[in-house]
Amino acid sequence: VVRATLYEDLAPGERQARHAAAAAILAADGAPAERVTAQLLLTTPTGDPQRIATLRSAAASAARRGAPRAAATRLQRALAESPAEQERAEILAELGRCELATLQFEAAQNHLQACLATGATLGTRADAASMLGRCTIVSGGRSAQVAADALASLAEELHPIDRDRSLELGSELLMLSTAVPQLRPGLPAQL
Fold this sequence. Notes:
By secondary structure, the chain is mainly alpha-helical. The chain has helices spanning 2-9, 12-28, 33-40, 49-64, 68-80, 85-101, 105-116, 122-138, 144-158, 163-179, 187-190.
């Protein structure tokens, strides 16, 4: 009761400053990313690259523990920290993967498509396209054409650089085209 009363007496800015200080102390003491993140989630974004790294580490830990919803919360906060373009794309892809695991298909598709629209590396975009294809299959064909176009385009871009990854994307396109009825007319040309 005393702690809650004292906490409520603090101005919101003061609360955030104290949570930021607590996060800094925990990080300096080598606390796990999850403990540091518990404090960071109670502060406003600052654009600090170290915060982004801590949030991503906590998200990865949560995902490994089988808590994709908790991972998604940390990744959404990492996005609020305004990461650079490549890191933003990686976070979008990770977030889409977590949302797919929690059956939030529309959110997953939005984040994966946002990743595809960035200037991220081919590998990052290929991972997002692959995940978008899977999301399309399990969600009943939503965003089917976008996923098919992304898989086809990235398979073509990767062909001269990484033939194995290009073939993987091509195989995923075939699975997508087989699973989603509206894409089946293009199947003979793909085969």
